[in-house]
Amino acid sequence: MKITADGFDFDFTDAIDVFVFDEKDKTKPGYHDAQMMKAVDLIVELQECYLFVEMKDIFDTDRYTQSQERNPCPRDPCQCPQESSPFKRLKELLKYKFRDTYLFRHAEQKVDKPIRYICLLTFENAFNLHMQKTLQQELPVGRVSRRWQLGFAESCAVVHVAAWNRLFPKWPVRHA
Fold it and tell me: Which of 5, 36, 104, 144 stands 20 to 30 A from 22 (CA)?
């Protein structure tokens, strides 16, 4: 199933369904009426799981990466007061897009398969790996409370276009 969204062309060759989850057009079937909630861009239903896909084409990447170089903190950059606020804002946005989407889908009773979160960003690999590690800790990914009956996020990947195509060859993407 081919879909174009936010400047990216995807081909999810083995998808059961693909739709724009943050649809703004009320006449489209993917439109949800909870605009006060954050939403991932795409939801892809596969046989074994759902993909929550968020894309960000960020034009001023230096704004995010320069402060990381000034204040390297390999343990937890979000705990460092000197850490760039653009990094923290982007991390919070990506985190709450997943959480709000999960909550919405839970209320629809559509969390019947594991969920994998993929963020497609236009940053270099080092930044993406740093963001991925931070998101995995805060979502939380792969960890469940003893009291939970359902998992939350099975996995979280933050990649650029080349990494996406290398890691997910069944679902090629092209930056339009």
Answer: 144
Structure tokens at 160: 């650029």
The Cα–Cα gap between 173 and 161 comes to 7
Residue 73 per-residue DSSP state: -
- Give pLDDT tens digits for 65-98: 665 444 445 444 445 544 557 889 999 999 999 9
Give the three-state DSSP class for 133.
helix
How, if at all, do strands 155-159 and 115-121 pair?
parallel
Give the residue among 118, 125, 117, 175 at the shortest CA–CA distance from 151: 117
Tell me how far apart the alpha carbons of residues 31 and 37 are, in angstroms, rounded to a whole number.
13
CA distance 168 to 155: 14
Contact assessment for residue 154 and residue 115, using Cβ atoms and an 8 Å cutoff? yes
No. of H helices and E strands in the chain? 4, 8
pLDDT, tens digit (0-9, with 9 covering 90-100), for 89-141: 999 999 999 999 999 999 999 999 999 999 999 888 888 999 999 999 999 89
- What is the pTM (predicted TM-score) of this model? 0.85
On whether the CB atoms of residues 94 and 134 are closer than 8 A, the answer is: no
* 14 vs 149: CA distance, rounded Å: 28
